[in-house]
Amino acid sequence: MYHMPQQLQPSQKRRRSQTGINVGYLLLSFPLGIAYFILLVVGIGFTVLDLLLIGIPLLIFIMALLWKIAAFERQLAMNWLGVEIAPMAAPFPADAGRIQRALIHLKRTVTWKSLFYLFLKFPFGITAFCLTIVCLCFCLVLSIVASVLGLLAAPFVYLYMVVASSSPLDGRSVGRYIKATLTLGGGIVFPLIIMDFLAALWGQFAQAMLGMNQNALRLAEATAIAERERQKAEQAEQSRRELIMNVSHDLRTPVASIRGHLESLLLSSEEQTLQPAMLRDYLRIAHRETLRLGTLVEDLLSLARNDSQELRLQIGIVDARQVVEEVYQVMMPLARRERQISLVRAVPPQLPAIYADRQRLIQVMLNLVRNAVTYTPDGGIVAISLQQTEAQYLTLSVSDTGIGIAAQDLPHIFERFYRTDSSRTRSSGGFGLGLAIVQDFVQAMGGTISVESTPNVGSTFHLHLKVAHETTNRS
């Protein structure tokens, strides 16, 4: 086995480095102990003296200051002595006031343990300082004596070693002799061991006094888990209430419209004054509103399935060009007939396939194109493009020359029931669910969605979906 005779092993270096840090900690304990003792005595004295006037505020201030000092001591022990100490206490409840926090703080066991620790820091600091000085002086005197004796006896020892071995001495033998002489046979190590033992003993004491015990730690973890679950339940309840309010509000408009036009139809039929053109208009409006209701129901069903983890996707290899062509053929006549909008497409001939659920991807693209048509003025342009921007992803983009999205609205457009202009979207058929569903579907297919928009210029939505490699296709 290879040895390192002239260099310290890594473990020896760490031990000697830790010994130096321990010596520094023991020496530093003396001034810190004095400062803590003075603070405790003065603080308690002032609190008792002014108890009738400002004692309680002063007590709270002193307790908070001592808690900060205890936290500093905990960090000092962890960094210098190398001990692992549990957290001092669990976080306060979010809805707790100052008085409640003060009462909770006073009930904690670690609060009083940390005060006891700071009080004992004074006698420990004196003891550690004196013992460390004695040990260091002993080491110094021992080193001087060993050096003098070694220098005086060196010629005789060297002569004896040469005669006894009948061979010239090597450097290793001489090094061992010098090391044994300077440390006086290793006796200088014992004071260092004593200081290491004292530092380790105080580190264990700090570990017991400045951190929660295992029972309190487990209780704090269980409380934190219960608090997170409570917050989740409150958020779920709040989301449920908002869902009911939003759905009720969104259902009111189309239902009222259908009811009003049907009542007009009934009244006109009774009076026999209904013209064919008016009948066609009433039926067209009623049909449009029923389509809006159907869209809302489908969107809510999709969200419910996604929330209950019942959304099942059939991920496979899909030709994105065919998807673009199908969406183009469906939406092109509608865009031209309803809004006089030109729908165009740009698809390169050679592109790899992607991983996706074909039907869901078509639903996503139809939703984006429908939104682009809705928010583009008459005579505008909506473009569908397809390109490979990265080796692993294919990008489907839907661009328009519409009203755009304000910068403050961009971070929220994928939130459920979020609408940038409620009055406009209600009249144009939007419920604030389409983009939320688009994002859920895209993420479920392993892709991402991003948006770029400039007010009064237009918007572009990018779908980034994973490329299906040829090796995977063959398998």
UniProtKB/TrEMBL annotation:
Membrane topology reported for the UniProt record: Multi-pass membrane protein
Pfam families, per database record: HATPase_c, HisKA, Sensor
Regions crossing the membrane: 21-45, 51-70, 115-134, 140-161, 182-205
Keyword terms of this UniProt record: ATP-binding, Cell membrane, Coiled coil, Kinase, Membrane, Nucleotide-binding, Phosphoprotein, Transferase, Transmembrane, Transmembrane helix, Two-component regulatory system
SUPFAM superfamilies: ATPase domain of HSP90 chaperone/DNA topoisomerase II/histidine kinase, Homodimeric domain of signal transducing histidine kinase
Any coiled-coil regions, as ranges: 219-246
Histidine kinase domain ranges (all copies): 246-469
Reactions mediated catalytically: ATP + protein L-histidine = ADP + protein N-phospho-L-histidine
EC number: 2.7.13.3
Domain of life: Bacteria
Principal location: membrane
Gene Ontology CC: membrane raft; plasma membrane
Record-level Gene Ontology MF annotations: ATP binding; histidine phosphotransfer kinase activity; phosphorelay sensor kinase activity
Cell compartments where the protein resides: Cell membrane; Membrane raft
Protein name in UniProt: histidine kinase
Originating species: Dictyobacter aurantiacus
Higher taxonomy: Bacteria, Bacillati, Chloroflexota, Ktedonobacteria, Ktedonobacterales
